[in-house]
Write a structure and sequence with these properties.
single chain; 431 residues; mainly alpha; ABC transporter involved in vitamin B12 uptake, BtuC; two-stranded antiparallel sheet; two-stranded antiparallel ribbon; 74% helix; cell membrane; cell inner membrane; transmembrane helix; Xylose transport system permease protein XylH
Length: 431
């Protein structure tokens, strides 16, 4: 009597060999291991592959900065002077701060059109509470920041809970908060901020000692090296690919060259601006939040695939509301720095081309409009591009009309690069 299973196909001579070789036919090898084993040749090949697949990273904006500085430096040597570059490092802080909030929103694949009005409103709140009503300046500063966070939370609530599109919510907010700013300022329309106010000093204070800039550069390089070594050790302990020591050292040398060259240039004029230092510290903290925390990974997950994030157990409404709260808070911070720059809050605060500049800074810096790809350092790089263009054209006496057209063209070029990059990644199966 035939037992169950006896009707199986008789084994053939090649079956045993096939079973032995099958597991070895397609070994699971991480491509990064192959690249690092091949040395310099492997890195060149990997770089070419990334270019073909559209993984450009910060390369376009770095090239743009080099071209802009080369062109304006050749047209007028004053552009590359220590004074102009030092002034530029201060002038981009306000716009850059607001752009950081826009980066968070863009990572979700959304947009916030209210950050300009929110920045003006928070500057007006501080000025009226401190200058007109005599409130303690630190308390007035905290109230202004809380106001920005509250506005962002309101936007996030209507977007995440009620289901109103972010474009509509923030467009309505752009009008509403601008009107509230005018109401807060009252009939005077302008409130001058004293030069010894905390807001003015945060922008104008400069550490004149050369040691300040060099120590800051050394600390930054040291933290980068320490973080890289700890990350490599953690990956090795988890038995996943990690950067070899030679690559870590090379990256550290490049960062050190940039940091100490910047410190040298700043010291050739006055020294290290406090505003720039605050901006860099904030970028480091927020970069850690985005890349090294669970919350940061949730933001990328929601921006990359909202349905997948929801099925993975991520609270999508919480992420959305928190991101818009961050955007509102950063708009307040940037608005206060802009108010400290001109030492006043007026009916024009947060207006003009500020909104377009902060969105352009985030996009030009490399943050994708389609969500799920970007970095807070995009705000710095993008603001540097926008600020460099404006500074160079101001030195050359170019009219505002031409400046607007050139800035718009650069923004369009950045969006085109982003779109082509995304298309290349889809073709390569990486998006």
């Amino acid at each position: 009597m035939k037992r169950a299973g006896d009707d199986r196909r008789p084994s053939e001579p090649g079956d045993a060999a096939a079973q032995q070789t099958a597991p070895e036919a397609m070994p699971a090898v991480d491509s990064r291991l192959i690249v690092r084993e091949e040395g310099f040749r492997g890195y060149v090949g990997e770089f070419r592959r990334k270019l073909r697949s559209g993984e450009l990273g910060s390369l376009p904006v770095v090239i743009a900065v080099i071209i802009i500085w080369t062109v304006f430096g050749s047209l007028d040597s004053a552009f590359l002077s220590a004074q102009n570059l030092s002034d530029l490092s201060q002038q981009i802080v306000g716009t850059g701060m607001i752009a950081v909030g826009i980066v968070f929103v863009l990572l979700l694949g959304e947009i916030d059109l209210s950050v300009g009005s929110v920045s003006g409103l928070c500057a007006a709140i501080f000025a009226v509470l401190n200058v007109i009503n005599g409130m303690n300046e630190w308390l007035a500063l905290l109230v202004a920041l809380a106001g920005g966070a509250a506005v962002g939370l309101i936007h996030g609530f209507f977007f995440a809970k009620v289901g109103v599109p972010a474009f509509v919510v923030t467009l309505a907010g752009n009008l509403a908060w601008n009107g509230l700013m005018l109401q807060v300022l009252g009939t005077s329309g302008t409130v001058n901020i004293p030069g010894d106010s905390i807001v003015a000093e945060l922008y104008s204070t400069i550490f004149e000692s050369p040691a300040a800039a060099y120590v800051t550069a050394a600390v930054g390089v040291g933290l980068f090296l320490l973080a890289s070594l700890l990350d490599a050790r953690r990956r090795q302990a988890a038995r996943v690919p990690s950067r070899p020591l030679a690559e870590i050292v090379l990256r550290t040398v490049v960062i050190a060259a940039i940091a100490f060259a910047s410190a040298y240039i700043l010291n050739q004029y006055q020294g290290l601006p406090l505003a720039l230092l605050i901006f860099l510290v904030l970028l480091v903290v927020l970069d850690f939040v985005l890349r090294r925390t669970r919350y940061g990974r949730q933001i990328f997950a929601v921006g990359g695939n909202i349905e997948g994030a929801r099925r993975a157990g991520i609270s999508v409404p919480f992420v959305r509301m928190s991101v818009f709260t961050i955007a509102g808070t950063m708009a307040a911070v940037g608005g206060l720095f802009l108010a400290g720059q001109i030492q006043s809050a007026s009916q024009t605060s947060g207006g003009g081309n500020l909104l377009m500049n902060v969105i352009a800074a985030a996009v030009i810096g490399g943050t994708s409009l389609f969500g799920g790809r970007g970095s807070v350092w995009s705000a710095l790089l993008g603001a540097l591009v926008i600020g460099s263009i404006q500074s160079g054209m101001n030195i050359m006496g170019v009219s505002n009309a031409v400046q607007f057209m050139i800035t718009g063209s650069v923004l369009l070029a950045a969006v085109v690069v982003d779109s082509l990059s995304r298309r290349s990644q889809k073709a390569a199966g990486r998006a």
